[in-house]
Amino acid sequence: MTSRPEFTGLILAGGRASRMGRDKALLRLGGVTLLDHARDLLCHAGAAKTVILGRPDEADGLADNDPGAGPARAISSAIDGLSQDGMARFLVIPVDMPNLTPACLVDLMEAGISACYRAQPMPLFIRVKNLNEDARQARSVRDFASAIQALTIPAPPDARLFTNINTPDDFEHLSATYQAR
Questions:
Q1: What does the pLDDT average to over 10-31?
Q2: What residues does each domain of the chain span?
Q3: Between 77 and 19, whose confidence is greater?
C-alpha cells in the first residue's frame, strides 16, 4: 500500500441556506451535526487537516473574504491563503452532502491530478501550484474545476452518494433514510 501525499480538507459551510431556512452545518443526522460528519469524513479519507470555509467562528474555520460571491470564490481565496510554496493539494466537500464516503473521496485523489466526478463538480480534488486568473474569477464550482483543468472521472454507480440537502423536505427524507438503516 502506497501512501498518498498530504492534503487539506476544505468544507464549504458558509452559505446562506436560504432554501433550508436554517444553518445546514448545525443540522443533526444520526446524532451528529453535518459539520462534524464532514470533518470525520475528511479525516477518514486521510486529510492532514481540515478547514471550514465561511465559518470564522470555528477553531478550524476561515472567514469568507468575499461574502455572497459563492463557493468558487471561497475555494479560490482559501487556496491562495493556505498554499505553501510548491504543490498544494486540497479536497473540497460541501457540508450538505452527507452520503459521501471516504472511498469515493480517495478515488478522486487516485487520479493524481485535480479531479471531480463526471456531472458532479463536488467533491473536488485540487492539485495546483498556482491558481490561474480564470480560477480566481470563476462564478461556479463547475467553472472553477474547468479553469484548473480538473479531470472528470466516471462517478460511482450509487447516485445517492451525491445527495445534496437543500430544503427541509430533503433533510426530512434523508433523516428518515438514516433512521431506517
A1: 84
A2: 8-180
A3: 77
Cell numbers placing 2: 502506497
DSSP letter (8 states) at residue 27: -
Q: Is a pLDDT exceeding 50 seen at residue 41? A: yes
Look at the block and give the residue holding cell 460511482.
156
Closest CA to 170 of 96, 93, 70, 95: 96
CB 117 within 8 A of CB 103: no
Note the pLDDT tens digit of each residue in 54-109.
Answer: 888 888 998 887 777 889 999 999 998 887 666 689 999 999 999 999 999 999 99
Residue type, 15: G
135, 76 in Cβ contact below 8 A?
yes
Q: What angle is formed at CA 56 by the lines to CA 64 and CA 117, rounded to 5 degrees?
A: 55
CATH fit for domain 8-180, picks 3.50.50.60, 3.90.550.10, 3.90.226.10, 3.40.50.300: 3.90.550.10
First to last CA, the chain: 32
